[in-house]
Amino acid sequence: PAENWTAHYTGYLRITDAGLYNFGVLYDDGFFLRIHGADDEFVEISSDFILTARERTGFTEDLLLSEGLYRFELGAYNRLQAGVVQLAWLRDGAAWEPVPTDRLVTDPTRVPLPGTLAMLAIGGVGFVVTRKRPVR
Does the pTM exceed 0.85? Predict the structure, then answer.
């Protein structure tokens, strides 16, 4: 039946501000979440049993993340009736909120770069500063 489904998401979490983060999944009936770091080591949370109520499960401890891309995998399944899967984060002790879509990247080569005008302005300032040095 259409009530039974499974899903598997992969991509990258784009962290723009270093700090403490926790990630949680609102789910019904089961899920796993892996967040990969250096050398492809990862941390994982999961729940593999059918619930009667929807729950959000997060890591037992916050993760200290620096700026950058972190590969993630999220798998979920549902058996009977309506199901749900939602990836959320908790930053520096604030409330849970869905991870913003601009922080989810499917292709690491397509991460937004600083605007061209900003880069030219920075380069121009560097050129002017260099040109004003006295010649010896």
Answer: no
If you ran DSSP here, which 8-state letter would residue 113 be given? P
Q: What is the residue-wise DSSP string for 59-83?
A: -SS-EEE-SEEEEEEEEEEE-SS--
The token pair at 37 is 């770091």
Do residues 67 and 16 lie in contact, with contact meaning Cβ atoms separated by under 8 Å?
A: yes
Q: Is the pLDDT of residue 123 over 70?
A: no
pLDDT tens per residue, range 17-30: 999 999 988 777 77
Range of the domain at 79: 5-107
Amino acid at 20: L
115/107 Cα distance (integer angstroms): 19
Q: Output the domain CATH number for residue 58.
A: 2.60.120.260
Residues in the chain: 136
